[in-house]
TrEMBL record:
InterPro entries: Methyltransf_11, SAM-dependent_MTases_sf. It comes from Streptacidiphilus pinicola. This is Methyltransferase type 11 domain-containing protein. The lineage of its organism: Bacteria, Bacillati, Actinomycetota, Actinomycetes, Kitasatosporales. GO terms for molecular function: S-adenosylmethionine-dependent methyltransferase activity. Residues 92-187 form the Methyltransferase type domain. It comes from the Bacteria. It holds the Pfam family Methyltransf_11.
Length: 256
């Protein structure tokens, strides 16, 4: 084993011990309705990232999830699709968690306003303090404080696989409402594209550690047809890694 891989496995085992010791109860989402209502522990993750010499986002990709470069790969795909090139003035993100996509989005664009809806209060406070974003009051079911047709990019990553069908669907209506005509809506869902028999077997045999409601699936055509009915057309879809299998990122544009 080389020095780099030995360092990585020490980090990984350290992280697992840390996460195991602190458990999933440290950061509990307060308003999650029926989905996976825990997120990774706040203090422990910050400390572990710091001692690994990594940003929190890179630490989660590399050590916690074991998928180095995963966030970067999604951001690269979105850049290639022109998602960041339109001079974004307002961005809204649902469930940013540690801010790994938020941080990289801020490097791609310089929005005047970045709103977050996050049910895990310690992470929301951390993102406000670190990146100067605006944390909106989050009921877990609407984007009510955000006006209609006001946001250039609305995004959510790895959120809708952890909440119920109804929670995701409520957010879908709201995402379409707040996006300005010509703006983009980006989110991932575990569609049938991600659910070939081998992937289902992998989830059944290796997934679901303590959370039988995760991951939640969502039919692709339900999303495409619903957003079409709300005046938003599908521009692209691509697969990204999620846990032991994958999830599908969908990119919509609201008709101008
Ligand atoms: C699996 S984490 C993903 C975090 C981040 N987007 C990422 O990919 O690293 C899901 C996030 O969604 C948040 N969340 C869960 N239910 C939510 C809801 N109903 N509204 C807003 N955020 C929610 C959790 O607190 C957590 O931060």
């Amino acid at each position: 084993m080389g020095a780099a891989s030995s360092t990585t496995s020490v980090l990984k085992s350290g992280a697992r011990q840390l996460l195991g010791r602190f458990g999933f109860d440290i950061v509990r989402s307060t308003n999650n309705r029926g989905g996976v209502d825990d997120f990774i522990p706040f203090e422990a993750t910050l400390r572990a990232a710091q001692s690994a010499g990594l940003s929190v986002g890179d630490y989660i990709d590399e050590v916690v999830n074991g998928t180095p470069g995963a966030t970067r790969a999604t951001i690269d795909e979105l850049r290639a699709l022109g998602v960041f090139s339109a001079g974004l003035r307002t961005v809204l993100e649902i469930g940013p968690g540690s801010g790994r996509y938020l941080e990289k989005t801020l490097k791609e664009a310089s929005p005047e306003r970045y709103e977050i809806y996050e049910t895990a209060a310690p992470w929301a406070t951390y993102l406000v303090d670190t990146f100067g974003v605006v944390a909106q009051p989050t009921t877990g079911r609407s984007l009510a404080p955000t006006p209609d047709d006001s946001v250039d990019l609305v995004q959510a990553h790895k959120v809708f696989s952890g909440v119920t069908f109804l929670s995701s669907s409520r957010y879908f209506f709201e995402m379409a409402r707040v996006t300005r005509p010509g703006g983009r809506i980006v989110f991932d869902v575990m569609t049938e594209t991600c659910l070939d028999p081998a992937s289902v077997r992998a989830w059944v045999t290796k997934g679901g550690a303590g959370h039988d409601s995760y991951p939640a699936a969502m039919p692709r055509s339900t999303c495409v047809d619903l957003f079409a009915s709300l005046g938003c057309s599908l521009e692209a879809g691509f697969l990204v890694p999620m846990g032991i299998a994958s999830t599908e990122v969908l990119v919509f544009r609201k008709d101008a």
